[in-house]
Amino acid sequence: MRMEEYHKDMLLLVLVGLLAIEVGGLLLGLLAALTLAGGTSYLAGHGLTLKAIARFFMENPAALGLGTLIAHAFIAPARSYVVVRYGHKYGISWREELGELREMEKPRLLKLALVLAAFVPQALEEYEFYVGVGTGALGYALALAYYVAEGLWLATTLELCSLRAGWGGLAALLVAWAPPHLLRFHGIDILNFLWALVVAVLLELTRRVGRNLVPVVALWTLLVLI
Predict the structure, then answer these.
(1) In this structure, which of 14, 68, 114, 219 has its CB flanked by the most CB atoms within 10 Å?
(2) Does the pLDDT at position 100 exceed 80?
């Protein structure tokens, strides 16, 4: 395969699979929630500013739940499609990855199960949040799908962007994935950005040590739920 085609595919994997889909989903959820939950009249009286939008969602949990639900419902399948498409093109089969994981020794699987069980309380807290904003089990399920889809993207990007350059995958995450973590409604969040940098390194080390992408997705899911 030509180098030019490879670079184009990796660029699309990052720009579309990460940025365009994320921004599109957030805007879709935002506009739908504002339209359906009375946000337009609220902003007409308070001004169309980020501060006013943030205040509206803080004062209206149901609108926050609706916007999040719609955003996740768009982002999760769209991102998964991009990941599967480019992964398949460059030889990644998630069915085979899961098959290799099933061959893991039983003691290691037991340890992994115990680690997963330790995060049950946090998962319950996450579920309570979605109950509080009115979306309940459906909102929680879509949130998990969103996290898993992002984990699939992270693992696939680490693997594919490293095919022609040893640390290319990590570089892609540090350049494209980590910087957006600086931005929050309340302003610049340095700690969240540093967290993203550390997570990117941990995921790359997990990929290199395990030689299987499923543990990368599992580690990401655990880290994001902490």
Answers:
(1) 68
(2) no
